[in-house]
């Protein structure tokens, strides 16, 4: 099997590089500078144990540069806003029965892929990675993957791909209801905006009490909305226990040693969510609409206030539109903005 990694940014590159290390054929579809560096020098995977060089990997900058083969498997790793156009460009090259694995955050990608391809799989990327520079990717924290058929089931190909990624070193689970797992991951992604707005990274936020408690409130709000909306997170192999995550964040207390250790983590090994990267690079847009926006829309549909997620969504989108880099607001600012929105929602509700 040849893995075609379309959208080889941080996550896609790490996926491809680690699989290629195990002898599987991998081709990255990446930005031109990244593709050129990989083809010229190989791929460097940076870890806390040192760098590894992967030479047995190739890259192109467009799907049209590829010649399809029997047994190809497409790994779609672009952001949701690019899914429709990516699926279109892939379909111009690959047959409709080519399997597509949506290694993407959010819950809308599989549906878009299924409009053009017959064999679509959901893949939950619980992976922390940073594209340091062209040709260099760092492995920073989590290494979870969940795989299953879209919308339901888990066939032999899904099992086979799961085995390949497990061999590469990922913690892989397979699922009959993979969207339950992707909704669970979406709850974690709600705080991508938090990290971007206040300019912090995952290792530090998890040990900073005020930030961890705020993130617990954000995720708790999202969890409540999903419960009311009847969206189940149940799957026997779900690697995420949302209630436990929230409880753990609420339990964070001041620990100077842990905070100092997180603060001293080398920059290349820090986990910055993609929303932080988007603001830093002034891309003008983020994925918040596909994360926090899902909760806000469901809240509106079911008459539930969502002051945390609506505040994060509006704030990070305004920052993106104006080209504002991370750190425009502090955690105190965010808490105050949420409270203001909560009071406004209460007053408006009271007036009715």
Give the SSE map.
Layout: E1 2-6, H1 10-21, E2 25-29, H2 32-41, E3 43-47, E4 50-54, E5 58-60, E6 72-76, H3 83-91, E7 100-103, H4 109-114, E8 120-133, E9 136-149, H5 156-167, E10 171-174, H6 178-189, H7 192-198, H8 202-205, H9 209-229, H10 242-250, H11 256-263, H12 274-280, H13 288-301, H14 307-322, H15 331-351
Parallel strand pairs: 1-2, 1-6, 2-5, 3-9, 6-7, 7-8, 9-10
Antiparallel strand pairs: 3-4, 8-9
Which structural class do you get from the secondary structure elements? alpha/beta
Q: What is the string of SSEs from the N terminus onward? A: EHEHEEEEHEHEEHEHHHHHHHHHH
Mean pLDDT: 96
Give the domain tally: 2
Largest sheet: 10 strands, mixed
Write down how many β-strands occur, each being a DSSP E stretch of 2 or more residues.
Answer: 10
**What name goes with the CATH superfamily of the largest domain?**
NAD(P)-binding Rossmann-like Domain
CATH architecture of the largest domain: 3-Layer(aba) Sandwich
Count the helices. How many?
A: 15
Strand percentage:
15-25%
Shape: globular
